[in-house]
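Student: Please help interpret what follows.
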Amino acid sequence: MAAIPNYQELTREVSKNLATLRTDLPDVMKGFNDLARAATAAGELDEKTKELIALALGVAVRCDACLGFHTKALVRLGATLREVEETLAMAVYMGGGPSLMYSANAIAAFKEFSTPA
């Protein structure tokens, strides 16, 4: 079984590696950043709700970097462990056993970002 990553380290490394794409593909990265900003902007759904949805999708596609970035955002937005757990319950309901196993990683990421440095 693969070890659960250190999500703070993982998000730092991914961010660092994305710098190459920002330099080499500025139009693509600007387009992605504009899309992210538009999708996460508060509207009928607030930013925290949208981040909870993103976390569930990260579980569904088994993206460790997604778990890291979205749990970090959820901590910043004041999400509670219970809100994260209920979100993960929906991911498990929709994705079955594999989503349950990956939800454990999401909890690890949330706890890691919730612990003061």
Notes: The CA atoms of residues 51 and 73 lie 7 Å apart. The chain has a mean pLDDT of 94.
